[in-house]
Amino acid sequence: MKKLSICLVLMWCICSIISAQKPVKGEKNNPQKTYEEYVVLLRNGDTKIDYTDFRHSYHASNKIMRQLRKQGELKAELNGHLEGEKMPEAIETLHKLLDIDFTNIETHIMLSSIYEYTGKDAKSNHHNEIAMGLLESIMGSGDGKSPETAWKVIQVPEEYMILLILGAKPVQQSLTNTEPVCDMIEATIDGQTYTFYFDISKVMELYARD
After folding, report:
1. Which residue, 20, 37, 47, 51, has most beta carbons within 10 Å?
2. Contact 199, 176 (CB under 8 A)
3. Is pLDDT of 20 > 60?
């Protein structure tokens, strides 16, 4: 559906995201609130939260370990709804995806776009604010130009969301021999090749869990 193209929505907001980047705060080992507490705040309209801490709270929860299979099933269901332009059903499925992972940037952006498309501006703005907060959390954690200044991610999909925002097409991916370990991704933007670095320390912690 061209009217609901996530790429167009993302490219429209990239300038505001980059210009709003803030100085990096120190990493927190223990989140200030639980993932569930943050979700309650956001569902109740409080979007002025610490999004980095929110993402870390999801990383610390058990939900992140159980998400992948169910997400795949729901995304297949969502694609069918979008192809058939069944907006109420698409919204319902997107909310089911949020029940699995409320930190998912793509889901919030799609909800924002669909709510705008259906004339529900308040709900559109709500999900847009959350998506922007999550994106700023990642892009404000570094500049992605070196292992020392790599963007800090807690899930691999966050890497590809940032690349999508930048209009970058991945060409090659490898792991660095650095501390911290980073995903080094070569990608092209308008024919030019760039190298981006993502700190995957938190991702590696997930692999080490039982």
Report:
1. 51
2. no
3. no
